[in-house]
Amino acid sequence: MSSTLAFLGEFGDAFDYIFHSRESEAGGARVGGSELLPLLWTHLEVTALAMGIAIAIALPIGLALGHTGRGAFAAISVSNTGRAVPSVALIAFFVAFFPRTPEFWNVTVALALLAIPPILTNAYVGVRQVSPEAVDAARGMGMSAMEIVRSVELPLALPLIFGGIRTSTVNVIATATIAPLVGVLTLGDPITAGSVHGRAGQIGASIVVAALAVAAEAGLAAVQRAVTPAGITLERRPLNRRLQTVP
Amino acid sequence: MTRLLALLLACCAIFVAACGDDEEESSAPQSESTAESSGKIQRNEDNSKVQLTIGSKNFTEQKVLGEIYAQGLEAAGYNVNKDLNLGDEKTALAAVKSDEISAYPEYTGTALLSFFGKKADELPKDPQAAYEEARSGFEKDGLVAFPPTPFTSSNEVAVTQDTADELQLKTISDLKGKSQDLTLYGSPECRQRLDCLLGLQQVYGLKFAKFVPVDIAQRHEVLTSNRADVSIVFTTDPQIQREKEVLLEDDQGMFPPYNSTLVMKQETADAAGPDLEKTVELLQEQLTDENMQELNARVDLDKKDPAVVAEEYLTETGLIG
User: Shortest CB distance from B192 goes to which of A27, A183, A194?
Assistant: First the structure.
């Protein structure tokens, strides 16, 4: 344990684990410090791919449902059911029924499925809450349905859509910690294999995952601010702030 | 929390495995019968005065062993009670010392590591030496350890029949020069265990393309689904026979012996007379790796009761009946 952090007790040891590699609990393997980098990389890879797949599926469906105004019941039901499925069960299901697919893809697809509901619901609600006058005006200007979605509804719904993406990203980052149970070594490895990494590893990796989630949340908030048109930001500021707290 | 997750996952895996087995049952070969033993247990009415309680730890193999000892000793005329499912080795040993039970089966390797403070790298590689060491350890506590079973319940390196044929593998040493292209699956602890990945690296000098730690419940599934080329399994796992896996011979003696030995207080053993040791030896004679796999399979895969499986063993080997 590094002496400067000794006063923090177990937490000090956990920080030491994060920054310096050490012998595993029973010896024989190196853990912590730079050994965490491949785990971090896999964690980011799984998260990014899962979010990519989820957005590619959920966003168009959410926009279409919101635009047509039909299927609200379906969208909300699917979302709520989706949230009730435990992530471990989903990952175990994929590994059990697609044993020949590499574990990495099984985990990624399972996480993508978990990420879909918040994005879908938020996209749907986001488009529905666009003022009908704005859509009417666009239609009056001769815009096609595609153009209305792209130039009016999507920009106006962006704050809510990003709210969904941020929620999902944080979910996926946290849930990716159970991937090691099926052999994908993410930052969950020190947490699930406590007998190898020790308590310092468990706490240390948890700290890294928490930091990752906070960073993703803050990063996406910055992206959201950057891509939201200035007019909307001004006009919608009070509403925007309230809606961001919607999970 | 993580333990809960692991448990959930294990449950799911077991549930799914159970579903899978139903389909295979029809195609699986009929369970092989266990070989004849050299003698039959003789009933001695004098023994009925002796009251014995046989205990066991809380997993399949232990329960089967407990039942075999209990039913066998009953056949020899003893008055036998059972208290199977006692928890871990520390609980079981405490139960023997406090006379809660008279005896339970313990593995030599476990006894040395868990009771007698041996380090993993100090374990003897010879089964007889391990037994002798465990026996003298128990002796100091006033306990007697009966001669061990032929089977050992340790880690093993398993490959599928196809992999074994293709790469011509018989021993672990045969992996040399081939392991760099192979993926090894094992428990997360495997990375730091001398009877696992660490031993394969240090004793055999093997390097694998990849080591993937998974939950222990998946150790056979990863082989059958071809995700793993090599997987660390246990000697007496029932899936080995049923799924035609090949265990590579530990030609350099990396796995410490985990033969099972019946542990009992010296005074209980003295009071029980000479028939006790004779019966135990007869009972253990046919407890080979293969037979133990088969017995575990009947409980874990065929969902039979350990008591029924033990009775089948005794009848099939001609010990009773």
Answer: A27
Residue with tokens 């990495």: A104
CB atoms within 10 A of CB A226: 7
* B192–A93 C-beta distance less than 8 A: no
Q: Could you tell me how far CA A171 lies from the centroid of its own chain? A: 5
Residues in A closer than 8 angstroms to B222, CB to CB, are 183
> Min CA distance, A175 vs chain B (Å)?
11
What was the pLDDT predicted at B62? 92
Contacts with B184 from chain A: Cβ below 8 Å: none
Q: Where are the beta strands (DSSP E) in chain B?
A: 51-55, 79-83, 103-107, 143-145, 155-160, 183-186, 210-213, 230-234, 245-248, 260-265
Domain B45-152+259-316 shares a fold with domain B155-248: yes
Indicate yes or no: CB of B227 within 8 angstroms of CB of A92: no
Residues of A with Cβ-Cβ distance to B225 under 8 angstroms: 99-100
Between helix A10-19 and helix A194-227 the angle, nearest 10°, is 70
Record: contact A189-B194, CB cut-off 8 A: no
Render A62-101 in DSSP notation, one character per residue: HHHHHHH---HHHHHHHHHHHHHS-HHHHHHHHHHH-TTS
Nearest CA-CA partner of B64 in B257, B299, B263: B299
- pLDDT, residue A6, reads 61
**Of the candidates B132, B129, B211, the residue with the CA atom closest to the CA atom of residue A28:** B211
Taking domain A36-244, whether its CATH number is 1.10.10.10 is answered by no
Map out the domains of chain B as residue ranges.
45-152+259-316, 155-248
Task: Walk along chain A (247 residues) in steps of 10 and give the mean pLDDT of each run.
Answer: 62 86 78 88 95 94 86 76 82 82 89 90 88 87 87 87 92 92 89 84 92 94 82 54 48
Contact yes or no for B16 and A96 at CB 8 A: yes
- Could you tell me where the DSSP H helices lie in B76-160? 89-97, 108-110, 127-140
Separation in Å, CA of A193 to nearest CA in chain B: 6
DSSP A207-241: HHHHHHHHHHHHHHHHHHHHHS-HHHHHHHHHHHH
- Among partner residues A28, A86, A191, which is closest to B198 by beta-carbon distance? A28
Residues B22, B300 contacting (CB under 8 angstroms) = no
Nearest CA in chain B to A198: B189
User: Which one of A96, A183, A194 has the shortest CB-CB distance to B2?
Assistant: A194
Torsions phi, psi for B316 (to 5 deg): -65, -35
CATH class of B155-248: alpha beta
Selected from 3.40.190.10, 3.40.50.970, 3.40.190.290, 3.40.1170.20, the CATH number assigned to the domain covering B45-152+259-316 reads 3.40.190.10
